[in-house]
Amino acid sequence: MTTSPLAPAAPATSAGFDIRRIGGRIGAEIHGLDLAGGLTPDTVTALNGALLEHKALVFRDQNLDDDGQLRFASLFGELTNAHPTVPAVDGRPQILPVDGDEGIRANHWHTDVTFVRTPPKASTLRALVVPPYGGNTLIANAAAAYRDLPEPLRELADRLWAVHTNAYDYAEPKNEKAAEHRRQFVSRRYRTAHPVVRVHPESGERGLFIGGFAQSLIGFGPAESRVLLGLLQSYVTRPENLVRISWNAGDLVLFDNRITQHYAPDDYGDLPRLLHRVTVAGDAPTAVDGAHSYVVEGDEAAHYTPVAA
After folding, report:
1. Mean pLDDT across the chain, nearest whole number?
2. Is position 258 annotated as part of the catalytic site?
3. What mean pLDDT do residues 287-303 have?
4. Is 92 part of the annotated catalytic residue set?
5. Is 277 labeled as catalytic in the residue annotation?
6. What domains are defined for the chain?
7. What is stated as this protein's family in its record (predicted)?
8. Of 83, 110, 126, 181, which residue is the catalytic one?
9. Active-site annotation holder among 18, 99, 112, 251
């Protein structure tokens, strides 16, 4: 497996693929693999290593169907269901439709499903319909953000815990479809305490584990929480910590949900945009001192993720 910063991809290596970096701190395109054709255990191990290093992997022109996306995602672990509250694709309980036409526009920085105790390990997004302009996805490296913190702020962050929830004061929905999606999203209330600094279970890296579902800091009032979370979040979204994915229909992106955030700018008007999301089950985040996340309100979401069960 080789890494090349240059534009053309080099020939595939003995690991079966080549890596082309697309961002200075995050992101790589994978070349030389046909995801529909089946991957060897050695190739999966090498891909997992690339995921740990680059945080987000882009596979162009794969043109998988739903079954192919499910098979690929399952190579990295047991799958979750689509979402704790939002309906899945009909007949496909593990696939979440991300449909801009239905008001599902994730134009806020977040890590997937952090309002439950065991958020996904990894997420796959597959582009079915993309607009002719806009509709990109931004992905941020939360480990680089942590390293950017001044030492006194890092030391404070290491001790902080945040409460993540799916039920808070959202912006007014733009239409009835968006309003119905919001009602579904908050139909079961979850509040979970996670460490602000999460120790990655495989790499040991520390990353800022916050994002849009982190609404308050334990031990701080609402005003102080907003200021401190906003300050920490500003390091996550620094331009040098981001990669922008410009979609083509048939592309698939795999990203490490334990140490990234993502954002889909709402910049494509009324044009259609449809992605399918499949997520890999994860564990309970671990703090610097070894403590684990815990439920504040709600349940273990066992109907959603097998790890929680």
Report:
1. 92
2. no
3. 97
4. no
5. yes
6. 3-297 (3.60.130.10)
7. Belongs to the TfdA dioxygenase family.
8. 110
9. 112
